Automatic annotation (TrEMBL):
Species in which this protein is naturally found: Nakamurella leprariae
Pfam families: FMO-like
Family: Belongs to the FAD-binding monooxygenase family.
Keywords: FAD, Flavoprotein, Monooxygenase, NADP, Oxidoreductase
InterPro entries named in the record: FAD-binding_Monooxygenases, FAD/NAD-bd_sf, Flavin_mOase-like
Recorded superkingdom: Bacteria
Name listed for the protein in its UniProt record: NAD(P)/FAD-dependent oxidoreductase
Length: 535
């Protein structure tokens, strides 16, 4: 145990990603003592861990950045439209330096348990190194896509070559030169890394369970003029972000995909495809995410694109998804589909050729054994709940969060959960989080939570807890909103479908960040309606 750590603070924050860093900054500004625990050796969260080749954000840099400090906005220079992982990590490190954050962050330290003590009205937080710290408030800023997941296939430990998960990439990189590489998973991590690995490897075989919809990113260096322009207009832009659906300002579509001619519809899809923006595609018409028929037009159009790019007809067909566009997170890529035209790149469709096991030499499917030097797992995360339920969180009367959420997460606003006083979640299940520009959602949550705690302190109150009634109503509302969309029609990680045994419920709030913000603001204005505040 580390004896230099304090044994009691006002707030414990779990995670030093974008959420944890901003929380620390805000709590300090309120004169509170806060301690951050971080498993990694540095700040950055997602951008610290996911160092796989080709890793980039799919939201433009000038939008995917903090808005809370105008000087920070003015001084940081983004270089690319869609920055790479090293560039975003450099930004996180810059923020940590600028606000002197590291002195209150305990690195290399995972939280194992957090138990509520009703008598003291405090949380006792335990670390993997046997330290215990008590805190009045506990804020889980541990990420939505941070509990990584290996595939459930036998023999994973038997492979004699190198293995890497995209979310645990070695800091000094992986050399694929002259190597035969097998890669499992075609979500964003797979789609981004496949072209880069293919450029180096001798042979690349991709194992695909479900194809992704992917749009060419059209990434490029930012022009000086556009940076200057953005810096001059940041305030208006930030306001538009806050009011938007996805946290990225876009004109509202007014027409149905079904009310225009085929030629006009194609031209509009082509424009979205050329723009390199996922949001442009998803908002090209007003019914892409709600009408199966409208969505089918987008689906067919993208299928035609894939068929026109990929030369081998079977491979092309295997790459065409059959679920509605946007119901699994779409990807932004650089040369993804084109990569399959290279002779040394092969696609194995696991729906036709099921995966049997990992062997000493490689991967065996129902058809044959493939031999590899390196296996890359781009198999994703136990999304939204994994990082919360991996910690033994116990609220009032010793009730376990994990057990309480067995049939699916239950939160009020995605910010708190009944039975867990003074526990707050940043971008928790039941909030828009993963359906949005994450930085916009993070800042809104951090502002809301820190304002709520400031309110408690100003009123001489000490605890805050969601009521079961407010929570039930919120869970129903989240489901109700989802039921008007096509989201529940895909086996996605939004639905918990990628983790065997996980409850199938649509976890994010799909009404958009602008609508959600209004609800949160109203709750606060009504004296934190739906929460019990007490002394
Ligand atoms: P994702 O999007 O969850 O992708 C994981 C991929 O791995 C996906 O294609 C999965 O297929 C596949 N997978 C997972 N388990 C298996 C098994 N057991 N067998 C075969 N294939 C499997 O994670 P990413 O890291 O790519 O991206 C996460 C998010 O980060 C992304 O959405 C962006 O928001 C940024 P499946 O689709 O489950 O059939």
């Amino acid at each position: 145990a580390d004896r230099s750590l304090p044994t009691a603070v006002d707030v414990v924050i779990v995670g030093a990603g974008f959420a944890g860093m901003y929380l620390l900054h805000r709590f300090r500004g309120m004169g509170m003592s806060a301690l951050v625990f971080e498993a990694g050796t540095d700040v950055g969260g997602t951008w610290y861990w996911n160092r796989y080749p080709g890793a980039r954000v799919d939201v433009e840099s000038l939008s995917y950045s903090y808005s809370f400090d105008p000087d920070l906005e003015q001084e940081f220079e983004w270089r690319e439209r869609y920055p790479t992982q090293p560039e975003i990590l450099a930004y996180a490190r810059h923020v940590a330096d600028r606000f002197d954050l590291r002195r209150d962050i305990v690195f290399r330290t995972r939280i194992t348990a957090a138990h509520w003590d009703a008598d003291d009205a405090r949380w006792t937080v335990r670390t993997e190194h046997e330290n215990a710290v008590t805190a009045q408030y506990l804020v889980m800023a541990s990420g939505c896509l941070s509990a990584s997941k290996l595939p459930e296939i036998p023999g994973i430990d038997t492979f004699k070559g190198e293995t890497h998960h995209t979310a645990h990439w070695p800091h000094d990189g992986v050399d694929f030169t002259d190597k035969r590489v097998g890669l499992i998973g075609t979500g964003s991590s797979g789609v981004q890394s496949i072209p880069v690995i293919a450029a180096q490897a001798d042979e690349l075989t991709v194992f695909q369970r479900t194809p992704a919809y992917s749009l060419p990113a059209r990434n490029r260096a930012l022009r000086t003029a556009e940076i200057t322009d953005m810096k001059a207009n940041y305030r208006a832009w930030r306001q538009a972000q806050k009011e938007s659906g996805f946290g990225v300002p876009t004109p509202t579509a007014t027409r149905s995909a079904l009310e225009v001619s085929d030629a006009e519809r194609s031209a509009i899809f082509e424009q979205a495809w050329e723009s390199g923006s996922l949001v442009n595609l998803l908002t090209s018409f007003n019914d892409i995410s709600t009408s199966q028929e409208a969505n089918d037009t987008a689906k067919r159009w993208i299928h035609d694109k894939i068929m026109s790019i990929v030369k081998d007809p079977q491979t092309a067909q295997d790459l065409c998804p059959d679920y509605p566009v946007g119901t699994k997170r779409p990807c932004l890529d650089t040369d993804y589909y084109e990569t399959y035209n290279q002779d040394h790149v092969h696609l194995v469709n696991l729906q036709r050729e099921p995966l049997i096991e990992v062997t000493e030499r490689g991967i065996r499917t129902a058809a044959r054994e493939y031999e590899f030097d390196i296996i890359v797992y781009a198999t994703g995360f136990d999304a939204m709940t994994g990082a919360l339920t991996n910690v033994d969180i116990r609220g009032r009367d010793g009730v376990s969060l994990k057990e309480t959420w067995q049939a699916g997460p239950r939160t009020y606003l995605g910010l708190g959960s009944a039975g867990f006083p003074n526990l707050f979640m940043i971008t928790g299940p039941g909030s828009p989080s993963v359906l949005s520009n994450m930085v916009v959602s993070i800042e809104q949550h951090v502002d809301w939570v820190t304002d709520a705690i400031a309110h408690l302190r100003a009123q001489g109150l000490t605890t805050m807890e969601a009521t079961p009634e407010a929570q039930d109503a919120w869970v129903d509302h989240v489901n109700e909103i989802a039921s008007h969309t096509l989201y529940p029609r895909a086996n996605s990680w939004y639905m918990g479908a990628n983790v065997p045994g996980k409850a199938r419920v649509f976890m994010p709030y799909a009404a958009g960040v602008g609508e959600y913000r209004k609800v949160c603001d109203r709750v606060a204005a009504d004296g934190y309606d739906g929460f019990v505040l007490s002394a």
